[in-house]
Amino acid sequence: MKKKSLAYGTWPSTISADMVARSGTGSASIPREVQADESGVYWVELRPEEAGRFVIQRLDPDGLVGTCTPEGFSARTRVHEYGGGAFLLWRGSLFFSNETDQRLYRQDEGGTPRPITPKPEPGEQLRYADGCMAPDGQSLIYVCEHHQRTGDVQNFLVSLPSDGSADPAVLHAGHDFYASPRISPDGQQLLWLTWDHPCMPWDGTDLWLADWDHSGSLAAPNHLAGGPSESIFQPEWGPLGGIFFVSDRSGWWNIYQQDNDGSKALAEAALEFGQPLWMLGYKTYALLS
What we know:
The chain is about 0% helix and about 40% strand. The protein is mainly beta.
């Protein structure tokens, strides 16, 4: 057989880059952002064979798996560029950020997605992520990122009606980054995280609490925990209204509970119960009771 001499990187192969991208191996097969209610278990799945589309999958009570996201949609947000927190489940209805236009869509069970946020001005973009629903199902609170024509980018919290009947209203602004807005079980208070340059979220974040009156305003935010050298992760409300979060104040990301006397570790251990918040929506613990 006659030998061939070809320049480095030019040898023909029967394995193409397209074949590798469409193979579906590696992280593409890992379920992301798992959520559940009485209608089933939902998660986001990457489809390399569909040009990298992200779809919401559902495991129904009968054990059948189906795709909720129709063709032409991709459930992916670009907030903070890395994204995360692209969809929210509420009593069988899905709220998700669509990758191509970054608008927020509502998809009721068995229905088609419809936008509930307005189109941005030409040359601008409004991105949404990491949302939560008020207990009455009427209001949503989201992290919003505004990319302006000038190149400036602003992050803030917004509230909007879940049926899209009004434009989002700014709830809180003034920090470089926002994450994890969480409404209390009685619908009266809101938790959220912020951080500012030059901190990364695993360096220093702040946990805030404020009364929320459903009219589009927050009253007197109270700083609960965190700072330039303390990273707070995954604030949550307990079923009865208690506040929980992960902090690395001891040198380890342990779970803490907040009460009127301050916060205390539920189990001090040389273990990590948190992780770097590269993407929004990360969860490492769940409250069972």
